[in-house]
Design brief:
The complex is a heterodimer.
Chain A (H helix, E strand, L loop, with lengths): L3 E4 L2 E5 L4 E7 L4 E9 L5 E8 L4 E4 L2 E6 L4 E6 L8 E9 L6 E3 L3 E6 L1
Parallel strand pairs in A: 2-11
Antiparallel strand pairs in A: 1-3, 3-8, 4-5, 4-9, 6-7, 7-8, 9-10, 9-11
Chain B lengths: L3 E4 L2 E4 L5 E7 L5 E8 L3 E10 L2 E4 L6 E7 L2 E6 L8 E8 L9 E2 L3 E5 L1
Parallel strand pairs in B: 2-11
Antiparallel strand pairs in B: 1-3, 3-8, 4-5, 4-9, 5-6, 7-8, 9-10, 9-11
The chains are: A mainly beta, B mainly beta.
């Protein structure tokens, strides 16, 4: 059974810092990996999707990398801002016909002004 | 934002009563999902649909049923609500391939079963 782990569970940084969020998964036979953010009391907002054949994806100040063989992904946030404060979740889809996502428990990020 | 709405947004009900949650999309996406989110368990898949009248069970399907009679609507029914089904329920949609496989989530329904 696939398990997804996110470390650290919580992170507090001063504004302007570059930071890295980590995601690891136990079964490397993934089809894709998706990063989301969730604001308190809200739904999930998709940030980036990386296909298993890709090494990284970029969107603005965000860069996600994928090392499928080692079961790891990182989300790099450049020049963090208070508006980046949220919980960040990674999720993997297995390389099967099923499209269900398996989620990590998230990293709660607080960016101090 | 993807056009996904969920109704109701909040509901309080009593143990033993049936409850139906509705997810509506305007994106014409083929795939629709129901997840629940609970502290300590994260998000877990309840059921999903891969087309009209085509559904399959997820990780935590016991006590839930679903129906999809139109592309745009996916209903989740708690047949006889229990306190363990108190949770936040999210609907998601996705397309068939490539970047459209991104799952987009609705705003959620907070359900309290007393």
């Amino acid at each position: 059974k696939q398990e997804v782990t996110q470390i650290p569970a919580a992170l507090s940084v001063p504004e302007g810092e570059n930071l890295v969020l980590n995601c690891s998964f136990t079964d490397s036979a993934i089809y894709n990996l998706q990063w989301f953010r969730q604001d308190p009391g809200k739904g999930l907002t998709s940030l980036l999707l990386i296909q298993s054949s890709q090494r990284e994806q970029t969107s603005g100040r965000l860069n996600a990398s994928l090392d499928k063989s080692s079961g790891r992904s990182t989300l790099y946030i450049a020049a963090s801002q208070p508006g980046d404060s949220a919980t960040y979740l990674c999720a993997v889809r297995m390389d099967t016909g099923r499209r269900a996502l398996t989620f990590g428990s998230g990293t709660r990020l607080q960016v101090q002004p | 934002d993807a056009g996904i709405t969920q109704s109701p947004r909040h509901k309080v009900t009593e143990t033993g009563t049936p409850v139906t949650l509705r997810c509506h999309q305007t994106e014409n996406h083929r795939y629709m999902y129901w997840y629940r989110q609970d502290p300590g368990h994260g998000l877990r898949l309840i059921h999903y649909s891969y087309g009209v009248k085509d559904t399959d069970k997820g990780e935590v399907s016991d006590g839930y049923s679903v129906s999809r009679s139109k592309t745009e609507d996916f209903l989740l029914t708690l047949e006889s609500a229990t306190s363990s089904q108190t949770s936040v329920y999210f609907c998601a949609i996705s397309g068939a391939s490539g970047v459209s496989e991104t799952q987009y989530f609705g705003p959620g329904t907070r359900l309290l079963v007393l």
